[in-house]
């Protein structure tokens, strides 16, 4: 179980900003010549990081990054609230410049004062997968990993730990 300790989000963001170039270079090397055991190592490091980091001590992603909503997400969450799809969309969502459906405003309307998600069991796919540090062929999303280190202490720690392992 992760330790519940409040996280200094600004501290991690500063560290991530300082190490952007270093992280970019490291991840680019992974893409050029991925080690044979990379997927296994990524899983190990991801698990290790989330034994140290308690997302509910942070919830910065829920406060600052709006997830993209798929049609399947909208259907599932609307059903959960027993709402018509259009009513859910009108109440919570807007279409952004990329033509994606996202929250009208942040922080997430389903984030409680305790940093817990009130729709955790039916949350969007983007929320379930964030910060994407447990996926195979991690080097395919280097741009996203770098971006996530600025928001997510776990993503920052993931890259740092992966660097020390390779």
TrEMBL record:
This is Fe-S-oxidoreductase. The lineage of its organism: Bacteria, Bacillati, Bacillota, Bacilli, Lactobacillales. It comes from the Bacteria. InterPro entries: Puta_zinc/iron-chelating_dom.
